């Protein structure tokens, strides 16, 4: 219980619309992470299909029990691995989702709630919004994990609710391009600010995985990282290239951070006063 948690962000270049090629890339990074004794591996948003895959949803969507996800889950063993895909749910409903895989099965699925439909982003044109965040536990049950996708992290009320509901590790699969929002919006600086803020205020370690490469007119800047409970960056990518970004977390740091700055405790108390 005191051995710590080894996290890794798989900063990859996704091949647009090529599930077979992307599975091969995932398998390669899963093998690298396993050889480094990683406990949790995170791929970027829509890592199996590509950032602009929405227009090809009917070809690329898969249910959460699809053989592609089962194939990846089989090689993960105990390593919890987060992958991005287009989910086809009952009733022909389609979601921008991430699946967490381990022990040969899908452990958890999160459907993106905050659909980014602004700037050069078209989530709302292709996907339905998720309606719940949810969470799951790792083998050490003190680690309660939630996997908000990209724009979900720009909704402070969503992150606040998740922290107050017990989240002790935040996973941020994102697909962030330099030009996505607008010329005056600095995505790398914005993400650095947002992640450090949540980590520091809530005593919440976060692992963020962004992609690299080009897709159409968009340039993906990488910057994948692991941030500790005090808002310190433990490891990060400083180049827009494929790599595995690895860091180790200790739950004792969460305990100390939340004792020193009891944001979650006091927020939960106030919610009790209202109810």
Word description of this protein:
By secondary structure, the protein is of the alpha/beta class. The chain has a single domain, classed as Carbon-nitrogen hydrolase (Nitrilase/N-carbamoyl-D-aminoacid amidohydrolase). It has helices at residues 19-35, 57-60, 67-76, 123-126, 156-164, 187-202, 251-260, 263-274; strands at 5-11, 40-42, 80-89, 93-102, 105-111, 136-137, 144-146, 169-173, 206-209, 212-215, 218-221, 225-227, 233-236, 243-249. A six-stranded mixed sheet has the order 5-4-3-2-1-14, covered by helices on one side. A six-stranded mixed sheet has the order 6-7-8-9-12-13, with helices on one face.
Main sheet, how many strands, which sense, barrel? 6 strands, mixed
Number of domains: 1
Task: Give, in spatial order, the strands making up the sheet with the most strands.
Answer: 5-4-3-2-1-14
Number of helices: 8
Overall number of strands = 14
Coarse morphology? globular
Relative strand content: 25-35%
CATH topology label? Nitrilase/N-carbamoyl-D-aminoacid amidohydrolase
Within CATH, the superfamily carries the name Carbon-nitrogen hydrolase
- What string, H for helix and E for strand, traces the elements in order? EHEHHEEEHEEHEHEEEEEEHH
Alpha-carbon Rg, integer: 17 Å
What is the percent of helical residues?
25-40%
Task: Output the structural class.
Answer: alpha/beta
CATH architecture: 4-Layer Sandwich
Low-confidence stretches: none
Gap from first CA to last CA: 35 Å
